[in-house]
Amino acid sequence: MQKKNIKERLRDKFDEVVRNLCSPALWLLLSVAIVVIGLSLSYYIEDFSWICRTDITQAHGMIFDIAVIGILIFWLNQNGEIRQRIRTYKDEIDDFRLWESEEAAFRRWEY
Hints:
Elements: H1 6-21, H2 24-46, H3 48-97, H4 102-107
Helix pairs in contact: 2-3
């Protein structure tokens, strides 16, 4: 197996980035950004300092929202995993309850 030279590795990395950028979510983001910036361009030109202040305020609010929602989703995900694990263990115990053999007794901790 021959090692790739730097030019081939850079080309592969560039192709990977281009493939990832062509996702529908990115195209949606770009089209919405173009519409919003196009509609508010006159406000940016007239009173940039006011727009800049409000944009910075909105950015901080968005960061706070993302943090709160991220923590909430993480907490819900952890609780869901714990409940799923408990359900799996209960189902496994129920499966072994009616099984009459030495292995089943060992798995049910009956000696």
